[in-house]
Amino acid sequence: MESLKSFVLVQYFMDGGPMMFPLLITSIVSLSIFIERLIAFIRARIDTQEFMLMTREVIESGNLDEAIEICDMHRGPIAAIIRQGIIRYDQLKRSSTIKSRGVNKRDMVEKTLENAATQELSYLERGLVWLATITNLAPILGFLGTVTGMIKAFDKLAEAGLGDPTIVARGISEALITTATGLLIAAPTIIFYNYFLNKIDNFVLEIEDSAVDLLDAFDNLEQGIKSITAEDLE
């Protein structure tokens, strides 16, 4: 049964004409990007609430080195961004020049967090431009195959006349196969693209919330205030 299916697919591919080859390439690229991005997003996920709870508690106790170690134990963009913010705050806190100038450390740390977030989001968005391109390119290639198929059909018709309709049918079949193939590639690709955009939007929200928590933790450290932890609530 599987060999029959394979034969049918190969037959459709051959009947689709030369435009099936670029369509095959676009389908392989789309699937490869989807798998690679899916793995990257799975690895980037962490329990943000638990991570920030631990990090904030350690920061407010004044142990910035331990907070950096907690970030090192977690992977993903959120941990990387928070790590950059802690390192920047520690540098500013130790700098006598910054102290003498009375510079607002919160603003400078916030700028560092924004830059780190931009870098991490660019990594998350890597490859998505190709998915967007394939979404538009696959139907165009399919329609181009439709045009070339119809041209072949009418050329054969002009040569053979109306006596052999099967000649025209082959060209029309090629045209329809490429159109269907282009649409079949574009449909799941746009789903992949929108899925990853939604995931990135969720990461943006988590990054913003985590950045606010970090800045509040620094403010509490400056004022000698400790937040209510999960243990306190129990």
Low-confidence stretches: none
Percentage of residues in DSSP E strands: under 5%
How far is the first residue's CA from the last residue's CA?
61 Å
From the alpha carbons, calculate the radius of gyration and give it in angstroms. Answer: 28 Å
Major sheet = none
Q: How would you describe the oligomerization state of the chains in this entry? A: single chain
Specify the helix fraction band: over 70%
The secondary structure category is mainly alpha
Number of contiguous helices:
10
Overall number of strands: 0
Order of helices and strands: HHHHHHHHHH
Commentary on this structure:
- The chain has 234 residues and is an all-alpha fold.
- It has one domain (17-224).
- The protein has helices at residues 2-15, 20-44, 48-60, 64-73, 77-94, 96-101, 105-124, 128-160, 165-223, 230-233.
- Helix 2 (20-44) runs antiparallel to helix 8 (128-160).
- The mean pLDDT is 83.
In short:
This protein is mainly alpha-helical and 234 residues long. Helices cover 86% and strands 0% of the residues. The protein is built from ten helices and no strands.
Keywords:
0% strand; 234 residues; mainly alpha
Secondary structure layout:
Elements: H1 2-15, H2 20-44, H3 48-60, H4 64-73, H5 77-94, H6 96-101, H7 105-124, H8 128-160, H9 165-223, H10 230-233
Helix pairs in contact: 2-8, 2-9, 3-4, 3-9, 4-5, 5-7, 5-9, 7-9, 8-9
